[in-house]
Automatic annotation (TrEMBL):
Keyword annotations of the record: Hydrolase
NCBIfam families noted in UniProt: HAD-SF-IIIA (TIGR01662), YqeG_hyp_ppase (TIGR01668)
Name of this chain's protein: HAD family hydrolase
InterPro entries associated with the record: HAD-like_sf (IPR036412), HAD-SF_hydro_IIIA (IPR006549), HAD_2 (IPR041492), HAD_sf (IPR023214), PGPP1/Gep4 (IPR010021)
Endpoints of the signal sequence: none
Superkingdom of origin organism: Bacteria
Any GO MF annotation of the entry: phosphatidylglycerophosphatase activity
Organism in which the protein naturally occurs: Apilactobacillus kunkeei
Hydrolase among keywords: yes
Entries under Pfam families matching the protein: HAD_2
Record keyword Hydrolase present: yes
Length: 178
């Protein structure tokens, strides 16, 4: 059961993921959580680094699709200036949102990765959907009220993961393993 929480890769920030490397790996789309992954949960404006990364993804013909548990209006408002496609109310850790994006965008699970800052939602949903996952560190240390219980449980899960797996290391970029 603990393997359901194991990320494929661990990268400090989503913007470190090289779009050209993704293209070489056959990745056609990056699925990403919204809050504390792409933007801070309490500040909906994208950073210059995010905008540059989105531009590089586009140059490499890789689509960025947000998969969020938030309601439609919240995600739409947050992404208005970034002009990104999204799936709201995805019900992570269920694979519903990821599977919907795979169907809607005619993608195979090997052609995507899912990025997020939480083991209990993003990584677990990725593993449930048979999609490779990238765990990132939260952009800011504070969380919305509804995320705090997950962070507590994550600490317990991390202990079990570290006991079982010795390859859980933060890397600067993804590699072609898995």
């Amino acid at each position: 059961m603990i393997s359901k929480f194991k990320p494929t890769w661990m990268i400090p920030v989503v913007y470190n993921i090289s779009p050209s490397k993704l293209k070489d790996m056959g990745i056609k789309a990056v699925f990403s959580d919204l809050d504390n992954t792409l933007i801070p949960w309490n500040n909906p404006d994208g950073t210059p680094q995010l905008r540059e990364w989105i531009s590089e993804l586009k140059k490499n013909n890789i689509e960025l699709i947000v998969i969020s548990n938030n309601k439609h209006s919240r995600v739409q408002r947050a992404l208005r200036s970034l002009k990104l496609n999204f799936i709201s109310r995805s019900l992570k850790p269920l694979p519903r949102g990821i599977n919907k994006a795979l169907r809607d965008y005619h993608l195979h699970h090997k052609e995507v990765i899912m990025c997020g800052d939480q083991l209990l939602t993003d990584v677990w949903a990725s593993n449930n959907a048979n999609v490779r996952s990238v765990l990132v560190k939260p952009l800011i240390e504070s969380d919305a009220w509804n995320t705090k219980p997950n962070r507590f449980l994550e600490k317990l899960i991390w202990k079990k993961l570290r006991n079982k797996y010795d390859d859980l290391d933060w890397q600067e970029d993804i590699n072609d393993r898995n």
